[in-house]
Amino acid sequence: MTRSLTSLLATAALSILVGGSAEAAQCGNTAAGFEPWKQQFAREAAAQGIGARGLQSLADTRYAQETIAADRDQRSFRYSLDRFLEIRGGPTIVSQGRRRKAQHPDFYAALERDYGVPAGVLLAIHGMETGFGNFMGDSNVVSSIVTLAYDCRRSDFFTGHALAALALVDRGSISPATTGARHGEVGHTQFLPGNVLRYGVDGNGDGRVDLTNVVDAMASTANFLRQKGWRPGLGYQPGEPNFPAIEAWNAASVYQQAIALLAAQIDR
C-alpha cells in the first residue's frame, strides 16, 4: 500500500514540494507495535520532505496512553444541550466573553471587519476551548498526534496532522516539548497541526504564527471560519447561513449548538 504525496498534502495542508512515496506504516491498537511503526512512519515522513528536526522529534515520541483514553471517551458530546452547557460553564463563558468584548472593542471590531465573524462567535469558541486561555493543555503535542496516527481507530485522519506537526517542528513553529490538548491541539482555540498550517494567521505582525498568542489565535480562528464559508452579516444559528462554518469547527452537534447559543448571548 502506498500513500501519494498529493493525498497527504491535501490532508495535512503541508507546503512541502518533494516527490516520491513510501510504504505506509501499519497501524496498531496497543502500545506493543508503536516503536516498529515509528520506524516505518519515519521513512514515510522523510519521503514527504520532513527534515532532521522533525524526524528526531518523531523518534523521541512516546505512546500517549492518556490520549488514547481520551479518544475513546467522548461522553460529554452525548449530553443534552442544557447538561453540556452546565458542565462546560456556559454562564461563565457568556459573562467573561461580554467583559472581554467590552475591554477590547476595537480588536474584535477589526476582526469582524477583516473576516466577517462577530466577536461573540470567536469569544464563545475561546471560552469553550480553553477557558479564554486559562488551560491550553498539558499533553505533549507531537506524542499525542503521532499516537493517534498510529492508532487504527482514526489513523487516516490523524496521519496528515502528524506529518503537519513534524513540519511545524522543522519550521520552529512548535518545539518537541510543546504541550497542548489530548488530541494534539495547540493554542488558545485548539488548532490541530494541519489546521495551523492551513489557516494560521500572523495576527500581531511579528513574522510568525503562534497560536499561544491570543491575537494570532483569534485571527486564525476567524480565518478558519471565513475559509469554511462564513458570510459577513448573516445569521449563525442552526438553519441559518453561517451555521455550517460552526459545524466545520467541531463535529459534535451539541458543541455546535452551544457555540451558536453562547455567541448570541455574548453579542446580545
Task: Write a structural description.
Residues 34-235 form the Transglycosylase SLT domain. Keywords: Signal. The chain is mostly helical and 268 residues long. It is 57% helix and 1% strand. It has 14 helices and two strands; from the N terminus they run H-H-H-H-H-H-H-H-E-H-H-E-H-H-H-H. The chain has helices at 5-12, 34-47, 52-59, 65-72, 81-88, 90-103, 105-115, 119-130, 141-150, 155-171, 193-199, 214-227, 243-249, 253-267, and strands spanning 139-140, 179-180. Helix 6 (90-103) crosses helix 8 (119-130), helix 9 runs antiparallel to helix 10 and helix 13 (243-249) packs across helix 14 (253-267). It starts with a helix and ends with a helix.
CATH class of the largest domain: Mainly Alpha
State the shape: globular
The CATH topology annotation of the largest domain reads as Lysozyme
- Which regions contain 5 or more consecutive residues with pLDDT less than 50? 1-22
The class by helix and strand makeup works out as: mainly alpha
Strand order of the largest sheet: 1-2
What level of helicity do the residues show?
Answer: 55-70%
What order do the SSEs take from the amino end to the carboxyl end, as H and E?
HHHHHHHHEHHEHHHH
- Give the helix tally: 14
Mean pLDDT over all positions: 91
Keywords: Signal
Signal peptide: 1-24
InterPro entries: Lysozyme-like_dom_sf, MltB-like, SLT_2
Domain Transglycosylase SLT: 34-235
